[in-house]
Amino acid sequence: MSRTYRDDMFIHTFEHEYTWLNGFLRNVRRYGKKPAVIDPVTDRSWTYRELNAEANQLAHALRGDGVGKNDVVMTALMNCPEFAVSYIGPRKVGAILNLANFNLSPFELSLLIDFNQPKVFLYSAEIADKAVQALETSKYQPNRIVIADNLKGVPVPEGHMAYEDYIAGQPEEDPVMDFEPHIYDEVLRLGTSGTTALPKSVPINDINEVLSAHDIIMHYPLCVKDICLNTTPWFHRGGCHVGGPCPSFYVGATILTMRSFSAKQSLQWVGDYGATFLMGAPPSLEILARTQEKSPVDLSGLRGLVSMGAPLEKEACIRYMEVLTPNIFNGYGTTETLWNSFLRPYDLPEHAGSAGSSCIDDEVRVVRAYEDHKAEPNETVPQDSKTVGEIIICSPAKSTYSYIRNPEMEEQKFYKGWMYTGDLATWDEDSFVTICGRKDDMIISSGENIYPTQIEEVLSGHPDVADSIVTSVPDPVRGQAVVAYVVPRREDLTVRELVSFCNSSDHLPPYKRPRYYRIVEKIPYNATGKKLHYAIKQQAAEDLAAGLLKRS
Predict the structure, then answer these.
(1) Does 435 lie in the same domain as 455?
(2) Are residue 498 and residue 435 in the same domain, yes or no?
(3) Is 244 among the domain residues?
(4) What are 338-347's contacts with CB under 8 Å, separation 24+?
(5) Which of 71, 434, 452, 551 has most Cβ atoms within 10 angstroms of its Cβ?
(6) Confidence category of residue 264, pLDDT binned at 50, 70, 90
(7) Which residues pair with 472 in a beta bridge?
(8) Using CA atoms, how far apart are residues 412 and 157, in angstroms rounded to an integer?
(9) Residues 405, 265: one domain?
(10) If pLDDT is split at 50, 70 and 90, which confidence band does 436 have?
């Protein structure tokens, strides 16, 4: 193609030098003495220079085990210093970092090992028994198995190696690259839920990493002076990319490690370490709010409280603004695309309860939802806050629009540069999107479409309801009947009170009101804070048969 200028240097520099690793290395040179990682549990910290040195040691060890270009290094690590090191080290030898969910069962983990065939596998000592079982049943065996973050002195299983011994004696200097990086190289592989025990494998390339970092940096905004505490697991995209290692190390910020969520500790660390951004899933925010109400701490230093994984319900959002901080952010998106709509403090409280509007480089639309085929990207529903359609996302900066060895799912999810999420929503004239649920969660009762999230939103307005999840059970007259599972704030909350509350709500016509209730101690969530409607639907059928559901 003919251009008006000589473009060869630009193309080469952009394609081979504009990498996440080079961004991190710039910060090693700029902020070498600044803390990159603080681990409050062990009272240790790593400067950018020290973090890079340890990442180099890991890189040399990996190369010694035959890890090179496009080889897979799998980790099943909690949010620990070794996670931060392993986020960097594999890139230095051209490897792909595969982040596994440490909560998987041994069977699921063994499937993941067989599918991805990692040459090296690092796992947290906390899941040692699970890792051993998974490796005993997997057909593929890594060249090296490394146990890390061993705070409790767990015995090193036979054939495995302690992380400290693995990197001991390795050079702290950058390894010589025997490959030429490219921005389209896969550098990260994430897992997302599917219909089988094997998660879908989502490839993230280098330019996705850079532009994902940019997205977070400009939307907060995030800067070198920030200290981030992401309480969600870093193995998920919302963990590593939303105030986790990806944007923080790219901009020169500091991250705090929290292996498992503790509301009291989170609030304490905000004060003790001067955390400026606190990230968590919606259920975590509810626990933070309750803890702050009981034992208040000074949160005035928070520049942002960031939620992702699921939209915040309106009543909850307003409460968090009052109890925690008015600086509430909420992102909506997917593992494949990071977040794509964003709710900012200046959108509140007017748009509380929505999933926000499109991010700067993204476009989120609500199109018609068909049972047997996809809508065209321009088949949008009216922006009237009433008409329900399917959310589709255009996010070329943060998505490869692909899965690893899964063409059937690619065809189902991606079309003409858009991702079809399966999430149902309405949108308004300003393009603010409000989630109604998922296609497969929709309840059809007496021929009417009912969306669980609308009923959950109403229930959240009851002062004695801490949480709720809505599903359905078969009904001989209606086809399906609505069931509400409710977590109470007080032990003596009754079903009669809930029925009265719903009957008096202007937002629930009679056909949408729950026909059955059950008061429970907790409801099922996944690691990223999304309510597991499919799990509660199965439980509801069992509870109906067992007589545990109470009629309204």
Answers:
(1) no
(2) no
(3) no
(4) 338/212, 338/215, 338/237, 338/238, 338/241, 338/242, 338/395, 338/398, 338/399, 339/215, 339/238, 339/242, 339/308, 340/364, 340/393, 340/395, 341/433, 342/219, 343/311, 343/312, 344/219, 345/304, 347/432
(5) 452
(6) very high
(7) 482
(8) 42
(9) yes
(10) confident
- Neighbour-count burial of 99, counting CB atoms closer than 10 A to its CB (0-12 exposed, 13-18 middle, 19+ buried): buried
For 446-457, the pLDDT digits (tens) are 777 788 988 998
Cβ-contact 356, 336 below 8 angstroms? no
Structure tokens at 397: 């900066």
Residue 475 is encoded by which pair of tokens?
A: 């009904």
> H-type helices in 223-364, by residue range?
237-241, 245-251, 263-273, 282-294, 314-323
Task: Give tens-digit pLDDT for 3-49.
Answer: 999 999 999 999 999 999 999 999 999 999 999 999 999 999 999 99
CB 232 within 8 A of CB 339: no
Q: What is the arithmetic mean of pLDDT over 489-515?
A: 92
Sign of CA dihedral 63, 66, 71, 73: negative
Cβ distance 73 to 145 under 8 Å?
no
Query: pTM of this prediction?
Result: 0.86
Which residue(s) pair with 147 in the sheet? 123, 162
Tokens of 368: 């018609």
The number of distinct structural domains making up the chain is 3
Q: How far is CA 407 from the centre of its chain?
A: 24
pLDDT bucket at 238, cuts 50 / 70 / 90: very high
Our measurement of the distance from residue 288's CA atom to the centroid of its chain's CA atoms, rounded to an integer in Å, reads: 18
pLDDT of 194 reads 57
The Cα 511–Cα 475 span in angstroms is 13
Beta strands in 48-156 (DSSP E): 72-76, 96-99, 120-124, 144-148
CB-based contacts of 538, cutoff 8 Å, min separation 6: none
Q: Tell me the pLDDT of the chain averaged across its residues.
A: 94
Q: What would the two tokens of residue 277 be?
A: 């951004």
Helix (H, G, I), strand (E, B) or coil at 427: strand
Select from 326, 313, 257, 259 the least CA-distant residue to 286.
313
Q: For residue 179, give its domain range.
A: 48-205
- The gap between the terminal CA atoms of the chain, to the nearest Å, is 70
Same domain, 486 and 424: no
Is residue 362 included in any domain, yes or no?
A: yes
HEC string of 309-333 equals CCCCCHHHHHHHHHHCCCCEEEEEE
